[in-house]
Amino acid sequence: MQSERSSHLNSVGDLVEDHYADVYRFAYRLSGSHADAEDLTQQAFLTACRKRYQVQDPDRIRGWLLTIVRNTFLKTRQRDERMIAAFEDVAVSSNDFDSDTFRFDEETLQKALNEIPEHYKTPLLLYYFEEIGYKEIGELLGIPIGTVMSRLSRARSVLRERLCRENETSEISETEDSRNNPASEVSAKQKDQ
Amino acid sequence: MNNQECDEIRQRIDCLPARERETDDVLSSHLMDCPECHKYAEFQNSFDRQLRPQLLEVAIPEGLKEQILQSTSALDDCDLSESEDSVQNAEVEAELVRPATVRQHQRGSSLLKWVIAGTAVASVIVVMMFQWTPADPQQRLTYDAAKDLLLAQFQEMSPEEWDRLSPFDQSFETLGIVDPQLSEWTRSETVGMSLDDDPQHEVAICEFRFRQWSGVLITFSADEFDGVPEQSYSASGQSVLQWRSPGGDLAYVCIVEQGSAEELLTEILGNFA
Questions:
Q1: Where exactly are the transmembrane stretches of this chain (chain B) (predicted)?
Q2: What does the pLDDT read at residue A163?
Q3: What are phi and psi of B239, to 5 degrees?
């Protein structure tokens, strides 16, 4: 019986080999800390090792692992109602879709993610990491589809707003820099040539 | 196009991955007639194309894979699927998992003897902390403890008739997926039992923690109670909440050991609204 259960996974070594990097990346984006991500990754694989007989569909192993990371993360955090309320109050503009090039650095991206409460952030991360839609996310997290849709849509809108705002700010500051220091613009142009 | 329809379409754009957006008939027909939503869709495609690679660009710490392989190989040698071993598992895991912050400290200090000595002391403290800190619900409940709890709760049942019940035990593990109410509850590994020959009396029992509340959650594969949660008291005077799963095929009895049972009842009732 045990061997049947485990047959979905060739070995724990394969499981780790195939997924540890993605699990770590997800854990980092979720927690915002490399030290926490290391702990979460290690703990998630230990849990996965114990519960691997639960895996029904080998194609969904990675999603299952990411869900374990999320559950492990939740055990270490208190739900922050004030953060959730503040996030839900953020106004999002709905008609500014002109930019088609975004430039945001790693720090800006992680800072924007850190400001999103977990139960909005997890669907967002699953959307991008797993490239899955609201139905699959709902199944993975055990959340009704309507709830996933509203959380995902809100999280994406707020993230987009924050990153675009950052994009505009950096463009403005670059323009001001070049106004204040025309020489830098000239040298930049020379560099381009 | 009316605003409500456009709002729904934009939410749909937000919630479908790029490859599904391209083949979704509802979206396609709307986008053909609505330049604003078309612009929104183009914008989202461009945003996603640039964001995803950056999200996945996270440097992996050196040696992480080896650490995980080392810890999981030790667990892999044991048969860890049996809940009876859960206390032992907790001890094994506590030995295997040390916080990354501690590991980093250990790496940096290995060059100097006096720091090694200090690290050894720190390690002892860490191990002692693991042993003295109350265990997480994930690993605590044993078969005997579960049996005692059930005996206290259902005194008319005969303990001789109880057996381990793996199938229900396993199906209970997926409850977090099946039952959205419980998806945020941290639960221990469950102990499954049959109270008598009647399959309607299969029971899974586990400890739980949910925000400020903790206690024991007993689940029946039966529609014993009304759907709406209500509070009562056990024979031993403990607060007990009982309700039925949204699908109606599971009944829950929740013994609240920590936190206000009334407040938890309000919380659960909120999910029913």
A1: 111-132
A2: 85
A3: -70, 130
User: Cα distance from A139 to chain B (closest Cα, Å)?
Assistant: 6
Q: H or E segment at B214?
A: strand B213-220
In angstroms, what separates the C-alpha of B97 from chain A's closest C-alpha? Answer: 7
pLDDT digits (tens, 9 = 90+) for A56-111: 677 788 888 998 999 888 877 766 667 777 777 777 765 566 666 667 788 899 99
For B245, phi then psi, to 5°, come to -65, 160
Give the integer Cα–Cα distance in Å for B162 and B33. 65
DSSP assignments along A128-183, one per residue: HHH---HHHHHHHHT--HHHHHHHHHHHHHHHHHHHHHHHHHHHHHHHHHHHH-HH
Of B164, B254, B271, B262, residue with least CA distance to B215: B254
Residue B258, classified by CB atoms within 10 Å of its CB into exposed (0-12), middle (13-18) or buried (19+), is exposed
Question: Which domains are seen in chain A, by residue range?
Answer: 1-77 (1.10.1740.10), 80-179 (1.10.10.10)
Q: Pick from B18, B42, B72: which is nearest to A45 by CB?
A: B72
- How far apart CA B238 and CA B228 sit, in angstroms, is 20
Give strand pairing partners of B242: B230, B253
Whole-angstrom CA distances from A141 to A147, A167, B171, B175 are 11, 32, 16, 11
The two three-digit tokens of residue B148, written as one number:
């005692």
- Joined together, the tokens standing for residue A117 give 């409460």
Rounded CA separation A62/B216 (Å): 31
* Ranges A105-109, A126-130, B41-45, B146-150: which has the least confidence: B146-150
Using DSSP's 3-state secondary structure scheme, residue B144 falls into helix
How many other CB atoms are there within 10 angstroms of residue B20's CB atom? 15
Tell me, yes or no, if B267 comes closer than 8 A to chain A by beta carbon: no
Closest residue in chain A to residue B83, using alpha carbons only: A50
Closest-CA residue to B69 (of A13, A181, A168): A13
